[in-house]
Amino acid sequence: MSVFKKYYPFLFLTLLSFWFVIYQKNGLLSLGDFVFPPIPELWLYFRLFAWKDFAFLGNASYIDYVNLIHYFPIFALFKIGIPITVIQSIFISALFIIGSFAMYHLLHEVLIESIHKKIICMICAILYMFNPYVAIVKLRGYNMSLYAYVFAPLIIYFFTKYIKGRHFFKNKYLYLIGFSYLLSSPASTQPAYITWSIFLIFYFSLLLFLFHNFNKTILLKFLIVITLFFLINTFWIMSLVLNLGAINRIIDVVQDETSLEAINNVSGNNLVNTFRLLGIPGMDATWRGIPYLSYYQIYSSPIFIFVGISLFLITFFGWLFSPWTHLKGKERLWWFYFISISLLSIFIIGGVNFLIPNLKLWLFKNFPLFLLYRKPYEKGAFFFIFSLVGLLAISLKIISNMLDFHVKKRNKNITTIFFIVILFFVLLYNFPFWSKQIFTSINHPECTINSLNHYPNYLYYFGEQLEKDKKVGRLLGLPINNSPISSGVENFKWGYAGIDPIFLFTNKGYILMNPLIPFIKNFYQNINSESVNEINYVSNLSSINSLFNIKKNILRNDICWQLYHSPDPSHDKKYLDGMNTKKTSIGELDLYDVSAENFVPHVYTPQHIIYSQDSVKKLTFIISQPEFTARSAVFFESQNSFTHFKNQLNQLGISSISTDGAKIQLSRLPVTEFKKINPVKYRVIIHGATGKFPFLLNESFHDGWKTYFVKLNNIWSSNHNSKSDLNSLITKYKILDGNEEDQVNIEELKEFVDKGLVTILGNGEEQSIIHLKYENGIEKLDYIEKYKIDFVSKNFQDTIQNDNLPNGSYYETWFAGKSDDSWISKITGFNKSILQVPDDTHLMVNGYANSWIIDPEKICKNNGFCKINDDGSYDLEMVIEFWPQRLFYLGLGISGMTLLLCLIYLIYDFIYKKMVRYRV
């Protein structure tokens, strides 16, 4: 019994934290950004790179590295055979345990002398993790911010213990703070969440100065903690800081869009509801007349109004009573700490609805820092909950002391009854957690939308088949998407609502046309099967397939198209079936292969060049004209620096640009051989180049994409096979499973070798592909495929994909040499085997993609960077790389060393204390 008395708060908190287990059999969450992917390996892989090529046309994302902390343990647990639904329960339960334990220990540190300290801390810890803000705003919306929410009290607790210690570095709490900052980093996808714990320790340090005069030790310890925060998070901070230009552009856009109406919709609804923890904007919102929260009216019933107001009044009791009368020492500091934070948070929560709204709108419009809190309730309510729980603990201590002193003599059980009532109030007020009403369904006439779902088996099989498909190319989802959310949110007949699940099951680039995406919207109506006839639909779709490197059109017959007024998939099906291309049906998905004449590879050299002085909006018109072919490239003057643009055009033989535009056809085009190594790196061999030509990469234009020439005696040359070697290797060649349509056959491969169009076929050693399958959401081995020569594609538009080309090292292009525009002067740089192509040859093409103007004759003046063929043409090797990726590698090294040092000290501290106890 004595053991139970000692540990009952932790047992009770742990038991409550497993509340999510009651939902486990219902499937995976499809709400908010807290994704538990059905195939974790894919989503972990995406987070390793600064360039995200899996969505739309690709984009840079430097902050997304923080999600490695979330997805890596999910991946590890999944790989050892734990079902993803169980992993989801483990994660959510663990976060609730950490958050409640952290708040318990923090409040245990706050309260000094009280025989009821355990029960007080337990009740308040429950309220911190179980409240309407967590239930509605966090679990149903910005749920990745739970990481910041649960670790904030732990960080401030460790900080208070660190401040008490005598040593600056010989203190385990410093390194525990470092671990906590690292584990909370997944919340940093929205910078406001970073400020939560930083503000808490900053403000606590400030109050220590005010209450105890200036103390240099406190200042130094605060600076050490902040430095540790930056060091352990360098893996994502470095890329972000060194790309401030992109951040400034985002700030400008957000400031322009910040309006009274926009902030009003996300501000606290009113002051009274805020005190009741119900100031959540849109809590009573409906969709098509059906409420999002079926239980919201219960909070308007008399009993819940009474409970909500009672909890606030009990907390307010601590506000009114003078802390100098009932509190001692550090409790007074904490009282002021909590009450001042609560007042500040109410000011923030009010947004533009209450408490000087015009002042706050002016701050949002004129000070970029305030944009962090442009969703006032969601970002500011954390501070209100945090401070409210702290004040409640202090109030409960004061009230229990008064009951013990004045009433207990007449009734010994009165204090116990009081705590039971408060605990009952807290549990009752948060009934959605226990009554299985947090994650409910919305029943529309056309389909039911669930908060949790099991993914259909055909999606897993779809992912398995696409994993076998080696050809680099994108997928285009049909019908077009009319969602009011540009990220591709969709509703499905099987109950799912959220990001299109195709994103979750494949690492191939996937495009979903939506009218809210600035560039994509130009093509939206062109393939709207509700508004265009079959002839125009097929013609427009063929042009779009060529323009965007589409290899398959995916018809999604399982969407609940009525909810967003998207086109009926049956209309698209009729048009697509008439195109006479190969069709594969997988469950509710129909896959239509793009024909060889319309497929344009991911990297290629164009045959026709079109120049235009019109705006990019004219692109849809241009690609609909007979002059536009699959291998055309369209350059817009408005998208490129005019001086450099004109110079590059002149190099291609255009002496002037007419107002109507110009078109040329390049002759004797080179053949391109390439390998996509990963989303940020490509190796390219150009065969038979004779004159200046543009070279295209079908990823969204970004200054971070760089092209480098590689000396022929470098990594490619060391793996180069002679023709005799290649011909002997061909006997070991086989077509890999799932690639029968696109992989070259053995006769065609011999022809490629004879013409010198395939450079390398590997070393002939046996390799294997592990094919996986998924049963009931669990990864299992399907079979192992052996091969000795990797994928070599057919010749598409004079481009051959050869996956036998070497990867090279991740630092291959670091410290690359540079030359002036003439390519004649001496190469500068530590790495003289790599030569960077000048940035002024980097142009935007086709309204979105990257292009470089290549001049082999100039390059070959730098000895060793090209090979002259017998016919006078040139062969060149290039590496295309997204430059910011190296910042991640550098930052990861710094973060890794910091983490290792923290771990070494904590192990040392643990062993040392064990030895001391053993000696005693």
From TrEMBL:
The keyword Transmembrane helix applies. Signal peptide: none annotated. Keywords: Membrane, Transmembrane, Transmembrane helix. It comes from the Bacteria. The chain crosses the membrane at residues 7-23, 62-80, 86-107, 119-136, 142-160, 193-211, 218-238, 298-321, 333-356, 381-403, 415-434, 887-908. PROSITE patterns: EF_HAND_1. This is Membrane protein 6-pyruvoyl-tetrahydropterin synthase-related domain-containing protein.
